[in-house]
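Support reply, case 0932

Customer input (verbatim):
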Amino acid sequence: MRNQPTIKKNSNSRFIRIQLIAGLLLLMISGAKAQQAKDPAVIGRWDITIDKGGKSLPSWLEVQKSGTHTLIGRFTYAFGSARPISEVKPHDGKYSFSIPLQWEEGNRNMDFEFEVKGEELTGTMVYSDGVTYHFTGVRAPSMTRTKAPVWGKPVKLFNGKDTKGWHTDGKNQWVVESGILRSKHSGANLITDQKFSDFKLHIEFRYQKGSNSGVYLRGRYEVQVIDTKTGEPEPINNQFSAIYGFLPPNKMMAKNAGEWQSYDITLVGRLVTIVANGTMVICQQEIPGITGGAIDSKEGEPGPLLIQGDHGPIDYRNIIITPAK
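Our regenerated output:
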């Protein structure tokens, strides 16, 4: 009988502790829900199309939170690499940001203002020359794959004789000599007639000293081909074997200019693996969005293989793709 008060006291203590824990859990859940409710719809990635004088320019925008109050981001214009946005400013139901020049001509920043309606956005861009253009955007697809790919049969995209199965986006300077696909000077890009979704790609190339090219996966994501050793200095995510402006290689495997080199690339959804000259330099990394020079911003659709021919002399051979079934 003398022990009963102690038992009752212990029971009361346990009950109080359980109530406190339950209360804390409810506060955490309520706080998380409140935080989710506060996050504006603009947060995320957007595939942009700018109407510049009747010409559609593919671009890309990412908006995210920095701390609890500030919105920041990244933007890829129709050319050049992804550049940071120091602040995306909300005002009167709209958003705005400004980015400095990269490769654009002019003497002023590029200013953007837009509003979000559901899964779409509309807005205006004041270009570096002061002219205003309109743009639209849709939320970028996640492109998550739920099953591992089943690979089909390898397909030779270049037959070693001519450019059958390819077309250019301008006056053609590409020629075939001794089984080699050559662009002897800057000119048009070379694009496959066929489009692909997920695939494995083997491609071999040779550049001259200081030259530059690129292989665009689905026509939207550039794997950089550049003379890193003797060319002009570039940020690491713009160098040899990088996904231009986004993903740097974990090791530099570039050979000397004038030597044949190779990439073995696997693209599944947004996940890319790159083997450069026999060494894996990017492994299962997510490509955030399109790179400068993309053919369009329709990320959810299949796209062609595009070989860049507007940055200097370049040779290619043994271009073999293995599509997923």
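We compared this against your earlier run and they match. Two observations from our side: Residues 44-139 form a domain with the Lipocalin fold (CATH 2.40.128.120). Helices lie at 4-38. Please reopen the case if you see a mismatch on your end.
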